[in-house]
Amino acid sequence: MSNSWHEKLLGGFRRTSDRLVGNLAGLGGARLDEGTLDEIEEALIASDLGPETAGRVRHRLSEGTFERDMEELGIRLVVAEEVESVLAQVARPIEIDAFPRPQVILVIGVNGSGKTTTIAKLAHLFLEQDYAVMLAAGDTFRAAAIGQLKTWAERIGVPIVTGPEGGDAAGIVWDAVKQATAIGTDVLIVDTAGRLQNKRELMDELAKIRRVLGRLNPAAPHDVLLVLDATTGQNALSQIEVFKEVAGVTGLVMTKLDGTARGGVLVAAAERYALPIHAIGVGEQMGDLRPFDAREVSRIIAGVDTERK
């Protein structure tokens, strides 16, 4: 991974890392008695890492294999190891292996999460890997979503299937799969409505899309990706809960890790749901959404990255 990507990761997780380092400040060097362990655990929860990871770090520190007056850096190294063990289980790029083609990827997420832009970035990522990509504007609820996705399709040079505002999303998906199959497209990325206010309506629409896809290809959709906005912190976790129920989420993409984000929620989501996290977004450019290395991100979050300036 290029150094510039590493620098963007440093920037993207800076708030999380600074917060964690600040919350642990002063706790190193003290005896690791129950009171200090309580403070360390609370500091990690306050850093959005989640109670599960915080509890595991506490358990590691209490095992007695560490010096009883462990320095702060040593505590952060334990945090890095525990975070890595969580993230290593979920850091998995999307494999384009569907046969017959296309591999159909439904993208879901609440309006405002960066869903449409993330679709464009995913398309760009697949184009870099020499896959042929098509988009389908299945969020017919918002004219702006259709227009925005068309603009992105033109900008990155991929075909797109659209319909009128308020049109039948399943019909658009049907047309898109037919076209993608005819021209030998590898990946079809489908935008979907993000209105969670009416869960039943959204569930019905997604179920209809699934039925249509099933008639054309019983294996489709091959992936159901939930786009999460990292700036929403713990609210992102409740979105996973709802969308898992409504849409059968198979993987996550975490966006807007831009330095203001509460990136610790990445760890909390991994620990609690164990869903694959296929990519993270750390900037506005097309190349700023990529698969991530669990060790690199863990060390940055824990503030022990050797290249940190």
Mind explaining what this structure looks like?
This protein has 309 residues and is of the alpha/beta class. It is 50% helix and 12% strand. The chain contains 12 helices and 8 strands. The chain has helices spanning 3-12, 14-24, 34-46, 51-62, 72-87, 115-128, 143-156, 169-183, 199-216, 235-247, 265-273, 294-301; strands at residues 103-108, 133-137, 160-161, 187-191, 223-229, 251-255, 277-281, 289-290. The chain has an 8-stranded mixed beta sheet, sandwiched between helices. Strand 2, helix 7 (143-156) and strand 3 form a beta-alpha-beta unit. Helix 2 packs antiparallel against helix 3 and helix 8 (169-183) packs parallel to helix 9. The longest helix has 18 residues, at 199-216. Residues 101-308 form the AAA+ ATPase domain. It is found in: Cell inner membrane; Cell membrane; Cytoplasm. It is a peripheral membrane protein.
- Rg of Cα set: 21 Å
- Individual helix count: 12
> Which class of secondary structure composition applies to the elements?
alpha/beta
Point out poorly predicted stretches: none
How many β-strand runs?
A: 8
Strand content: 5-15%
Helix content: 40-55%
- Lateral arrangement of strands in the main beta sheet: 3-2-4-1-5-6-7-8
Gross morphology: elongated
Summed over residues and divided by their number, the pLDDT gives a mean of 89
Instruction: Spell out the helices and strands N to C.
Output: HHHHHEHEHEHEHEHEHEEH
Q: What's the main sheet like? A: 8 strands, mixed
Through-space gap between termini: 19 Å
